[in-house]
C-alpha cells in the first residue's frame, strides 16, 4: 500500500515542479489543465506495470533478504531472531569467507582480460576487418553470449578433462608433461573457470567497444596517421581515452559478473576441488537450498551485495567524471 | 544526483536478479504453528479409519492419488501403472522433478493447499519436526510394518528431539539399496582373482596386483558436481575397522556423536594409503558419476565402489562381465557391512487420500507383481515382511549377486545409512571438499575427520 501512496505523492511533486518549468507553463497556456494531468496519468500507466514487477521481484526480495539475515530459519519452521550472529559465522568459517576471495580472483579473468583483450580485438576489427569480415568476426566472438551456459559448461568440461581435447592438443605439440584434469586441479581449476569466463564475456566487451569506436571521428585517426602514428600510438592516444565510458560499462558489468558468479562455476566445477573455485554465489545456493540455513545464506548475500557496491561505485564515479 | 541514483539502481537491479533467485519465497513463510512432534499414536484424528480393526484401503470409489516423483527413476511410475491395473478405481496425478529441485520445493509442496498424497522425500527431519509430514505409526500398526526386519524402518523414524533412527515413522522405502564393490570379471581374472576377497588384507593384495599389472585398480568419481565418491570406500573401511553403531548414531544426529573416532581414523588412514598408492584415477577430482560408470563399463578399472541402483547400467554396458561382493571385513570370518538406504516416500500431513497412499506403500512391499517390478527395474531389494518371496532377476544379471548379499548384511545387523546423509549439506560442504583435498595431498586422515566434524557441528548448530 505504501508503494502506491508514494507513487501518488511523487506524481504530485512532479506536477508541482512542472508548474515552475517555463516550457511546461507555456504548454499549460495552450492546453487546458486537465490535459496535463491526463498526460501524467498516461505516462505513469506506462511506468506502473514495470515498476510493479520491479518492486515485486527485485525490491521485495532484496528487503526480505536483509530481513532474513537476522534470523535463524530453515525456510519452513519458526524464525528465531539471532541479530548479527549469521554475519559473525560467515567471518569465522574460512569455507564461507574464503569464497569472497575467490570471487575477487575471478575479476582478473571475468573483467580485466575480457576488457583488455576486447579493446585489442575491437580495434583490430575496426581498423582492419571492415565490411563482411568484420561482421563475421563480431558474430563469432559474440556467439558464446548466445549459447546457453549450461551447454557451454558441459562442453568445456569435456574439453578440459584429462582425456579431453585440450590435453590432446598439448600432447600433440610435445607438452604432454603439463597435461592434467584442469577442472580437478587445485591450482588450475580457478584459472580454468576463468578461461571459460573470458570466452563468454569477450564477445560482450568486444561488441560494446566496437560500437563505441564507430562513434569516434575517423578524422582523428586520419590526422594521427598523417602525423605518422602507428597502430599502437592510435590505440593508446585516441582509442582508449575516447572509449573510457564504454570501458567503464564493460568493467561494471563484468565485475558484477565476477563477484556474483554462479552459473559458470556451478556448471563447470560446482565449487570444487576442495573449495578452490567456491564463490559466494555457490555458497549462498548451498546454504540456502541444501542446508536450509536461509538466514545464513541471506547474510552472505547481503555481504556480497555490499562488497559489489563498494567495488562498483568507484568505477561508476570514475567513468562519470571522464564522461564529463 | 538523479543520474547517480539511476546508476546505483541499475547496479542493484543486476545484483538482485541474482539474489532474487536465492531469496526464499515469501510463500514459504510458516503457515502453521510448528506442532510438537507427536510421539504417541496420534493418528486416529487425521484419518477416516472408522474402526480400529479396519485396514485402510483405496475403497471402490474413484480416487485420484496426487503424487510427486523424482525425474529419472522409473520405479515409482511403473509401480503406479501396475497399481492402477490391479485397482482400477485409483488413478494418478503424477508430477515430477529433479532431486535437487525436490530439495527446494518439498516444503512448499507440503505446506501448500494441494499437498501430495505421496511424495519422494529428499530429506525428512525438518518436515517431520514442523508437522508437515504425516506420522505413519498408525499405519505401521495396522499393516504390521513394525514386525518387518528392523533396519528397514529405522532410517525413516524421527524422534521427538529430531534425531533419526528411532521414534515415530514418517516415511516408507519403496525399496532398499545396497552398496559394495563391483568388479570387472575379465580384468579380475587377469590379476588372478578367482573368488571375492575374504579379508581387507586380501583385497589390498588384489589392488596391489592390479596396479602391478598396469591396470586401473579402482574407478571412482570425485567431482563436486556429483559429490565425492571416495565417501563410499571410506565408509566401508570405517565399518571394517569398527562397529556400525557409532557411525549410524552420527548419521542420525544422536547427541554427542562424533565421526572423529580412533577406528574411523584407521579407516581414513587406510584410504589415504590407497590414494597415495595410486589406486584411484589421477583425475578423480574432475570425474563425474556418469563418467566413472561409463569408464568402468569401458574396461577402465578392475573394481568400483557403488550401489545396486547402477545394476541395470552395468548389465547393459558390460553384460555378464560384472560381479559384486560386499566390502570384506578386517578379520576372516568377520561380518560384512554395507550402506543400505530406503528409496524414501512419505505422505503429507494435509494429504486428502492418506489411507490409499499408505495402502499403496504396503502393496509395494507385499504384492508379488510389485516386488518383481522393483527387482527388475530398480535392481534393489523390495524389503517387506520376513519370508516374503524374493523375485528372481534375469539370468546373468549382477542383480542376483546384490540380492544375495542383502540378507548377509541384514543377518549381521550391519546395515548403515550413508555418511553423506548425516546433515543436508555435509556432503557438499564437508566430505566432498575435504576428500578432494586428501586426493591432492592437502589434507591428512586426522585433519579430514576433524574438518568434517567441525562442519557437522556448525550445520547442526544452525
Q: Would you kindly provide a written description of the structure presented here, covering whatever features stand out?
A:
- Chain A is mostly helical and 324 residues long.
- Chain A has two domains: 2-68, no CATH class; 88-323, MetI-like fold (Orthogonal Bundle), CATH 1.10.3720.10.
- Chain A has helices at residues 2-20, 22-30, 33-68, 85-92, 94-127, 132-146, 149-160, 165-172, 189-215, 218-226, 231-242, 244-259, 263-268, 280-290, 294-323, and strands spanning 71-72, 80-81.
- Chain A is globular and about 75 Å long.
- The two termini of chain A are 40 Å apart.
- Chain B has 462 residues and is of the alpha/beta class.
- Chain B has two domains: 58-177 and 341-403, Periplasmic binding protein-like II (D-Maltodextrin-Binding Protein, domain 2, 3-Layer(aba) Sandwich); 179-339 and 414-461, D-Maltodextrin-Binding Protein, domain 2, CATH 3.40.190.
- In chain B, the strands form four sheets. Chain B has a five-stranded mixed β-sheet with strand order 2-1-3-11-6.
- In chain B, β1, α2 and β2 (90-97) form a beta-alpha-beta unit.
- The model of chain B is unreliable at 8-53 (pLDDT under 50).
Instruction: Please name the CATH topology of the largest domain in chain B.
Output: D-Maltodextrin-Binding Protein, domain 2
CATH class of the largest domain in chain B: Alpha Beta
- Structural class per helix/strand content of chain A? mainly alpha
Regions with little confidence, pLDDT below 50 for 5+ residues of chain B: 8-53
Mean pLDDT over the residues of chain A? 84
- The number of E-state strands of chain B comes to 12
The overall pLDDT of chain B, averaged over residues, is 85
Number of strands of chain A: 2
Please give the order of strands in the largest beta sheet of chain A. Answer: 1-2
Distance between the termini of chain A: 40 Å
- The percentage helix of chain A is over 70%
